[in-house]
Design a protein that fits this description.
2 helices
Length: 66
């Protein structure tokens, strides 16, 4: 595909959909617990971006594109 685009002097763009949900911004404060093997297992983390497995991840990405 790259060779065809180069030969025809076309502009080529790509989108990594597998990791796209990681760039969605959350619209509320959301915290998660640390993994059990972390140095402070009782600490909580404030999420600034969506992560895999988060129910709101796909919606956050959609709203960012919209």
């Amino acid at each position: 595909m790259v060779a065809i685009a180069t030969h025809e002097a076309l502009e080529l763009e790509h989108l990594d959909v597998k990791t796209a949900v990681l760039h969605g911004e959350l619209d509320r404060e959301l915290y998660m617990e640390q993994p059990p093997d972390h140095s402070h297992p009782t600490a909580k983390c404030l999420l600034l971006k969506s992560i895999y497995g988060l129910k709101q991840a796909a919606r956050a990405w959609y709203l960012k594109l919209k």
